[in-house]
């Protein structure tokens, strides 16, 4: 279901009226003082509403998604995120409908097309950053650029969407330590050392070269520099050895921007039980990814088979597309999405929440969040087709027995806490 928001001043006025009558209730007081903000249906008095309803719990939470690939759409397709888009997973209108307050846009360089460093990789990252910043400049009534937890809280209070950035793979720093600060100053607030292709200084979980490789000395310097600046270190996509080197090296909490539990879906991108515990002990957060390959092992096995079957279709879609490398890549992935929808069974939202349950069991409810990978995945769980469907996740969490406070932590509170810890000097 989709819930519309009421201006916060209506809630405050309602609480004041009740206070004047001497009848103020604890729930109304808490709502008025909640830094997350309580949002209600238009025209409905707040004191008449069920303060524990899924609608209000979702709306009073600050909801944050740590990872979406929409920045590539801004550059390659020139999409207008102020409007409802006919495709994809994310735009400003659907964010408002789904109560998503803050989105980290992934700044991703595809090594196949742009290399693992060098001018092309730098230019590709810079173009995406410029596109996110231009979005904020063009639509200041809808979007604001956020670089801190305080910015997210402020923009939510102004009823604006927060645009943040994280770098998926360290290719664009081009093996220059000073470029870490360059990207921090441009607004990037987390970085993973590698995507599915290893860098010279960190191993990836996605290639044979990096699976048994960790951080080299330059990689250690990068982590220290990120700690110094207040940039979160992301362990999604890195090799197991790189993961443990980051845990040992970082002085600040670390994040997994979009990873699930390996015990439930045995793929290298997911985290082992020991890794989940280590992130929790470090004070960090694991943000669950919505792609079914990382949710269900059987679905992933079927996907691998389907990928082999449809390879000629994807090759043809790419070859028949004229334009840039990015445009050819877009055509290939669109064809993949179509074929997956025809050939693969759906995965339920409950399967995703199983991963949240598992992480909570190992690390605690303070160490799990959301990292959808929207606009970078070719399938989604049933009930989570786009950001507009995020309230369904809240409903399932409450059905599982999570308290309202726990749900607020999972939806975004945990990410705010980690941001504040990393920001502190």
Description of the molecule:
The chain has 425 residues and is α/β, with parallel strands linked by helices. It has helices at residues 8-20, 26-33, 54-60, 70-76, 92-98, 111-114, 119-138, 149-157, 178-186, 217-229, 240-249, 273-281, 297-319, 325-343, 349-363, 390-399, 404-423; strands spanning 64-68, 102-108, 143-145, 161-168, 188-192, 232-234, 254-256, 285-288, 368-370. Strands 1, 2, 3, 4, 5, 6, 7, 8 and 9 form a nine-stranded parallel beta sheet that branches. Helix 10 links the parallel strand 5 (188-192) and strand 6. Mean pLDDT is 90; it is low at 1-48.
From the structure above, extract its key features:
nine-stranded parallel β-sheet, disordered N terminus, 425 residues
């Amino acid at each position: 279901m989709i819930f519309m928001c009421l201006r916060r001043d209506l809630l405050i006025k309602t609480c004041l009226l009740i206070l004047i009558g001497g009848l103020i209730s604890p729930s109304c007081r808490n709502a008025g003082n909640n830094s997350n903000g309580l949002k209600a249906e238009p025209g409905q008095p707040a004191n008449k509403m069920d303060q524990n309803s899924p609608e209000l719990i979702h709306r009073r939470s600050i909801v944050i998604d740590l990872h979406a690939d929409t920045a590539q759409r801004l550059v390659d397709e020139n999409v207008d995120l102020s409007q409802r888009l006919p495709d994809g997973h994310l735009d400003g209108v659907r964010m408002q409908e789904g109560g998503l307050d803050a989105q980290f846009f992934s700044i991703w360089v595809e090594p196949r097309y742009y290399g693992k460093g060098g001018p092309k990789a730098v230019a590709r990252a810079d173009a995406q950053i410029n596109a996110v910043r231009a979005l904020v400049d063009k639509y200041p009534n809808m979007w604001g650029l956020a670089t801190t937890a305080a910015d997210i809280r402020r923009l939510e209070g102004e009823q604006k969407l927060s645009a943040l950035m994280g770098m998926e793979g360290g290719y664009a720093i081009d093996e220059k330590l000073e470029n870490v600060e360059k990207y921090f100053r441009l607004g990037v607030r987390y970085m993973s050392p590698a995507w599915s292709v290893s860098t010279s200084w960190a191993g990836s979980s996605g290639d044979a070269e990096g699976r048994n490789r960790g951080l080299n000395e330059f990689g250690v310097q990068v982590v220290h520099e990120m700690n110094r600046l207040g940039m979160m270190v992301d362990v999604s996509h890195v090799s197991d050895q790189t993961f443990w080197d980051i845990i040992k090296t970082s002085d600040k909490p670390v994040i997994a921007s979009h990873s699930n539990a390996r015990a439930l879906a045995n793929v290298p991108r997911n985290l082992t039980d020991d890794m989940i515990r280590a992130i929790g002990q470090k004070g960090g957060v694991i943000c669950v990814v919505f792609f079914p390959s990382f949710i269900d092992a059987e679905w992933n096995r079927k996907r691998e088979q389907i990928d082999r079957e449809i390879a000629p279709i994807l090759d043809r879609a790419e070859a028949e597309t004229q334009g840039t490398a990015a445009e050819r890549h877009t055509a290939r992935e669109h064809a993949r999405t179509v074929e997956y929808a025809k050939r693969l069974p759906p995965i339920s939202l409950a399967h995703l929440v199983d991963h949240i349950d598992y992480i909570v069991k190992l690390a605690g409810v303070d160490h799990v969040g959301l990292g959808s990978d929207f606009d970078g995945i070719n399938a989604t769980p049933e009930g989570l087709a786009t950001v507009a469907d995020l309230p369904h996740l809240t409903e399932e969490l409450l059905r599982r027995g999570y308290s309202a406070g726990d749900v607020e932590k999972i939806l975004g509170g945990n990410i705010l806490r980690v941001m504040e810890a990393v920001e502190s000097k």
